[in-house]
Amino acid sequence: MEKKSFPSFKTSQEVFDWLNQFVNPETVQPSSFRPERMDTIAAAAGHPELCAPSIHVAGSKGKGSVTGMITSVLEAMGLRTAQYVSPHIMDYRERITEGHRFLDERIYIEAGNELRNLEEALKDFSKPEYRIFSGNNANEGPPTYFELLTLYYFLCARMIHCDTLAVETGMGGRLDPTNIVESIVSVITVIELEHTEFLGNTITEVAGEKAGIIKPGKPVVLAEQCEEALELFRKTAAEKHSPLLYLPEIAEIRDLTVSEEGTNFTLSFKKEGFFPAPLKLSVSIPGAVQALNAALAAITLKTAFPSLDGETLQRGLRGFKIPARFEKLREDTPVIIDGAHTEKSVELCVNTFTALYGTGGMLIFGCAAGKNVEAMAAILAPAFSRIIITTPGNFKVSDPGRINGVFEKEVQRIKEKAGAAQTAPELLFIPETEKAIQYILTESRKAGLPVLGTGSFYLAAEIRGQV
């Protein structure tokens, strides 16, 4: 087979533009998830996922924050850490970083060239190990966008000679391309019904997919779960002879305070082998959930690195920042963005928002298709005086008209329950994302009301780009 010659990429943006030509990860079908295909392309690249010890994080919500906290503490320990998270908010490079910093541009470019050459080589179907990519049946075909992006991360990590890998799953766990890592510790955050078309229609089915990241004989750190999920995780861990470290049995959060500046709390441990004295910890992001995320990160890091001391943990958590997790964009009339897109995460977000700014503010909401809009609308509508429904950008499939209809029904219920129309929120439908954002930014200033933008990381990114 004649080898093609390509001009080298000149910028990281060219690499991501090339990657975007592949199957959109938001429109893939369940048959697109093929672990053996990811194994094959990783083998062809010389298994870069094994370049350093890894910590693997899955879950329905909070996994990005937990991954970021782990990364911050690893950096505070002096370990060069390659981080992989999704989605990005403003720049594709946010997905692949050293610590929380972009890599040197040269690394993105060189790894991109290696990836493209590898992808081209995989088209040589004369090699038996590559025939899986020929697409001769529905279960085969070329690598997907997320498979190639994940391999790109591992190539970048190998090029920077990192000491550790902090890896967030994209979706699920068992079939996720990131699951080729041989993690020293796995972490699973809270489980909710999500991506049901891929992960299953029950909590047990979703938990089963997440449990797929548990590695034989390696510890798994687990957030508090509902009974059916916890039972599934205990069973899986026992079958794999993996020590299960369940947060409520390991540590306790006390003296929790949340302010606009962040979250402060005391973390004390119930079992030996962790920190002997209670630790006073701070995270710069407001929200009680961030204390839980930090507790998961602390247990994980102490398990992976028993020499970790309390001062380093404190310093690493204090330095942690992440976009679109209750991020304040404007001070005078506050504008908060949060990527919450599940029932529980929206509830936690609204609780934090109303605790800090009261009820009666303004909401701009948009979410992708397939989300539980009814549950989110029931939580959101009573807390705001004006609600704007819009499209969460163009990256994900959305049905803003249906979402607006759900909110209309919820507003009507509020009117009927209150018996006075003026107590119900005003609802506006502005499907054009940019127009909706400009409207709420202008009107909130006029009314002197705080704004919450939520429902999607992609909507959060659009708001962030306009404030």
UniProtKB/TrEMBL annotation:
Residues 325-456 form the Mur ligase C-terminal domain. GO terms for biological process: folic acid biosynthetic process. Pathway: Cofactor biosynthesis; tetrahydrofolylpolyglutamate biosynthesis; Cofactor biosynthesis; tetrahydrofolate biosynthesis; 7,8-dihydrofolate from 2-amino-4-hydroxy-6-hydroxymethyl-7,8-dihydropteridine diphosphate and 4-aminobenzoate: step 2/2. It catalyses: (6R)-5,10-methylenetetrahydrofolyl-(gamma-L-Glu)(n) + L-glutamate + ATP = (6R)-5,10-methylenetetrahydrofolyl-(gamma-L-Glu)(n+1) + ADP + phosphate + H(+); (6S)-5,6,7,8-tetrahydrofolyl-(gamma-L-Glu)(n) + L-glutamate + ATP = (6S)-5,6,7,8-tetrahydrofolyl-(gamma-L-Glu)(n+1) + ADP + phosphate + H(+); 7,8-dihydropteroate + L-glutamate + ATP = 7,8-dihydrofolate + ADP + phosphate + H(+); 10-formyltetrahydrofolyl-(gamma-L-Glu)(n) + L-glutamate + ATP = 10-formyltetrahydrofolyl-(gamma-L-Glu)(n+1) + ADP + phosphate + H(+). GO terms for cellular component: cytoplasm. It is an enzyme of class 6 (ligase). One of its GO terms (molecular function) is dihydrofolate synthase activity. Residues 140-300 form the Mur ligase central domain. NCBIfam families: folC. Belongs to the folylpolyglutamate synthase family. Functions in two distinct reactions of the de novo folate biosynthetic pathway. Catalyzes the addition of a glutamate residue to dihydropteroate (7,8-dihydropteroate or H2Pte) to form dihydrofolate (7,8-dihydrofolate monoglutamate or H2Pte-Glu). Also catalyzes successive additions of L-glutamate to tetrahydrofolate or 10-formyltetrahydrofolate or 5,10-methylenetetrahydrofolate, leading to folylpolyglutamate derivatives. This is Dihydrofolate synthase/folylpolyglutamate synthase. It comes from Treponema primitia (strain ATCC BAA-887 / DSM 12427 / ZAS-2).
